[in-house]
Amino acid sequence: MNIIGVPRRRVDGRAKVTGQTRFADDVILPRTLYCKLLRATVPHARIVRIDASRARARPGVRLVLTGNDFPIPYGILPVSQDEHALAIDRVRFVGDPVAAVIARDELTAFDALDLIDVEYEPLRTFADPNDSLQHDTPRIHEYGDSGNIHKLVSLRFGDVDAALAAADHVFEDTFFYEGSTHLPIEQHAAIAAKDQDGKLVLWSSTQTPHYVHRALAKALAVPAAHIRVIATPNGGGFGGKSDPFNHEVVVCKAALMLDRPVKICLTREEVFYCHRGRHPVLMRFKTGVKRDGRITGMRVQTVLDGGAYGSYGVASTFYTGALQTVTYHVPAYEFQGCRVFTNKPPCGPKRGHGTPQSRFGQEIQLDKIAEQLDLDPAVLRLRIVEAPETLTANYLRVGTIGLAECIRRVTRASNWRETFRKLPRGRGVGLACSSYLSGAGLPIYWNDMPHSGVQLKLDRSGGVTAFCGATEIGQGSDDVLVGCVAEVLGIDPLDIRAVTGDTDLTPVDLGSYSSRVTLMMGNAAIQAAERARDVLADAASRKLGVPKARLVFAERRVFDAENPPTGLEFSEVVCLAEAMFGTLGTTGSYTPPRSAALFKGGGVGPSPTYSYSAAVVEVDVDPSTGWIHVPRVWIAHDIGRALNPTLVRGQVEGSVYMALGEALMEEQTFRRLPPKLSHALVHKFPSMLEYKSPTTLDMPDVFTELVENPDPQGPFGAKEVGQGPLLPVMPAVANAVYDAIGVRIDEVPITPEKVLRALDAKAAGKRPRVGPSRFPDVAWPEPLNVPPPWEGGDGTVKSKVESEK
Amino acid sequence: MPQHAHINLTVNGEPTEVAFAPYKTLLEVLREDLNLPGTKHGCELGECGACAVLLDGQPVLSCLVLGVDCEGRTVTTVEGLAIDGRLHPLQDAFADLGAAQCGYCTPGFLVTAKALLDEHPRPTRDQIRDALSGCLCRCTGYQQIFEAVEEAVARGAR
Question: Are B45 and A687 inside 8 Å of each other by CB?
């Protein structure tokens, strides 16, 4: 390996340090008009009347659009087509777009928003899940499982009641995970125009150009072949740019109507309203264990506060119950999940998508179990780690598992045995583990086509162009693409040009979500490159008279392994091959293996392989102020193989950073305006100043260990790294706080105020804990019974009677 | 429309004359009137540090500076960091060590780090943390940024 595994400047590194990377708002076109959105000022209301005549009459205003201009709904999931570019009849949260002004400049558009008169008839506001569970009407949406319940899930894999009865100890705990938002530094921006053929082009900061392409075709009723979506490099995504957004549909419509480029750049406040961030989740874990710590069975229940629209919410709901089984062996497992609609910005996928919340609960509960059983939490976990090459109770096929090695590495590096329960009061360490998908096994819309495609064009100059629909969101996907091709063809990464994220030029890749790009695009790139190498080897073999099998591609040469001076320059070989076989181009594609989970809902959770992480967090807690300082974090990640270790480390450290934000300070929360004002439910602080996120001064030293055990499913053995390493950090912080001061904070963020409250309770002889005390009553449906593999199950639902035999 | 303002200033070493609407911030003048989109915006309220530029050698948030206040002054943006066609050592180190992931906050970090090195050619890790504390990065966790500044120093930056 010459490229793979070697720390290296990313191929797009130069552009990023010179300011040349062209983000969406940097796309400048002649004759551009500017768009601003009028957003709802009330959380839930019927629109009685919109009068835009004064805005239309304003000099400089070219167009005003309202909901009636967008009759066709769209949404990221086929089962949740519940969004309109501009609200029709109804607004569902403060910030819901109601009208759009397109004008000669931003200021004119902005001023004209004030000239649009909207009359609202207020409806009951649903501020939290209890409201939505208790009141069926008015319904926020006319679809969903009932009333204001969007989705109810109930799955049973084995007899959990019997498993709990057979346990030596049964633990029941409730946890709460507050919502948080992605906070990418780049505000969403988009510019749409008609090209010279009259077709629509959209440049947008989106993680999912293919899905935006589909949504535009539907919402605008324009043939997909006449729409081109170009995903500009995203200035941070983290899941927050994965939905088709109102503003994208609006500028496209306006550009088509006006035949002028139309641009929008959201304000920071608007980015908070776009949201699609971490769902607030209330959860209950009931887990049975034997005396030695082995789990006998587990029941997990979650209630998700979904906000005002569906977004990815159905998938998010399943994800809160999907991955409990891939870290530790769980012989019987039951999951019930409920997502409700509320009148707040819609929640969706943020780094870890639905799994960090329940991972938080699971790993804190394990810490409690270890203490009760008088076991070291690391020893307990090592004892129950899931076996490699396993089909779990819920039919997830796990391949390689580096979790035990991750635990050993972080405990060794952090000197765990000498510190856990041994540091002076106020200082503590905590351990937690996790796992994440290397790409969702199923696409968002049902189809049998590849999830990622790569095309290569080989040029007489010796240059190669790699085309792929994958989207560069900072994670380094262009570098993965180029690195894989360079390795196979034996050329320098800078000899390769990456053309990515353009629905006209590049074959489909489903997008930068679910940690899927490295594995799926990487495998497609290797296939395309191997096919190209095969053609080139034919040509070189004929010219050199050396058997193909003996040819080596390295250092921009193709040569005889047994006699290296006998060889040709790579560019010569390309010319020879082009002369022999005609114009050179190859394709590669990747489709994940078939899932073993054949029951309804089994589409969420399967992945070609899973990454594993373990973290030890050290905290200093000041008992007088409750302030938590994190001086050090040790984290080990099972990456399979690090394609570019510099980028892998960056993903791990960035995950730790974002996790500490969620653990200690970040919260997307809401308040009521005073009654003498509108009493509306509004975002507490839609600004970067008040929405606290960690700065350079808050960031601890992070010690990263990469566990490399190449996975047969991954490109050169690689697994994901963008999301998994975030997951163990939040529970490790909570466990460390307990180690430091003996109080349990069973919710995030773990703020000084909560620490002091718990310490006060402890001093008063009460339970030293802050966290939710009750779990709401949910009318769960009868569970789907899917017997686990070891009970003769085949991944399908069996009738209740049959499963009880 | 109000009458345009008209100023002379030095931008990235070049004498520059520019006319613009008088309410515009330096950020807007740079991006919209001087064709220098390398400087980014994340909030336009002075909260994120993405729009940092050097004004007479000092880091400022260009979203909080009015263009009309820049008459006769010297502005350095990310486009002006390279020297004689070669990347500034900070730029090289940022690219080599993974200090730029999405790259959106990078211009702000680079010019702020340059101001630090101009004042403290051999800063400690704590001085680097302090100097960069007004810039938010959501990708890196800052550690590779600290290392890149230190590497640039080791490579002889100032």
Answer: yes
> What residue of B is the nearest CA neighbor of A655?
B141
Contact A653 B110 (CB under 8 A): no
With CB atoms and an 8 Å threshold, state whether A23 touches B87. no
Helical spans, DSSP H, in A612-728: 645-664
Cβ-in-10-Å burial (0-12, 13-18, 19+) of B80 comes to: buried
**pLDDT tens for each residue of A720-730:** 999 999 999 99
Tell me the chain B residues in contact with residue A9 when contact means C-beta distances shorter than 8 Å.
Answer: 95-96
**Residue A677: predicted pLDDT:** 85
Helix, strand or coil, per DSSP, at residue A103: strand
In this structure, the answer to whether residues B57 and B21 fall within a common structural domain is yes
Question: Rounded to a whole number, what is the distance in Å from the CA of B141 to chain A's nearest CA?
Answer: 4
ipTM of the complex: 0.98
Nearest to A9 among B96, B105, B144 (CB): B96
> Tell me: the pLDDT tens digits for A786-802?
999 999 999 999 975 44
Q: Hey, where are the domains in chain A?
A: 31-123+185-236+241-274, 449-590
pLDDT attached to residue A805: 41
Q: Right CATH number for A449-590 from 3.30.365.10, 3.30.1490.190, 3.20.20.80, 1.10.274.10? A: 3.30.365.10
Find the CB nearest A23 among B78, B90, B104: B104
Q: Nearest Cβ partner of B103 from A16, A238, A657?
A: A16
Identify all chain A residues contacting B134, using CB atoms and an 8 Å cutoff: 695
Q: Do B137 and A185 touch (CB under 8 A)?
A: yes
Q: Inspect the interface and report whether the beta carbons of A654 and B48 lie closer than 8 Å.
A: no
DSSP state of A211: H
- Judged by phi (left if over 0) then psi (alpha if -120 to 50, else beta), residue A191 lies in beta
Contact A236 B41 (CB under 8 A): no
CA closest to B33 among chain A residues: A28
On chain A, the residues whose CB falls within 8 A of the CB of B146 are: 696
Mark out the alpha helices in A705-799 (DSSP H runs). Answer: 729-741, 752-763
Residues B96 and B126 both lie in one domain: yes
Q: What is the pLDDT of residues A269-289, one digit of tens each?
A: 999 999 999 999 999 999 999
B142 and B113, same structural domain?
Answer: yes
Closest CA to A473 of A519, A441, A516: A516
Q: Are A234 and B144 in contact (CB < 8 Å)? A: no
Q: What gap in Å lies between CA B90 and CA B128, rounded to an integer?
A: 13
Residue A799: the pLDDT is: 75
Interface probe, candidates A658, A696, A702, chain B, greatest B C-beta count within 10 A? A696
Dihedral sign for Cα atoms in the order B24, B25, B29, B31: negative
What class has domain A31-123+185-236+241-274?
A: alpha beta
Between CA A280 and CA A90 the distance in angstroms is 24
Concatenate the DSSP letters of all residues of A286-311 into one string. Answer: EEEE-TTS-EEEEEEEEEEE--SS-T
CB contact under 8 A, B138 and A15: no
DSSP annotation of A197 reads T
Q: How many domains does chain B have?
A: 2
d(CA A705, CA A409): 7
Residue B158 has pLDDT above 70, yes or no: no
Cβ neighbours of A294 (radius 10 Å): 17
Pure H helices in A582-688? 645-664
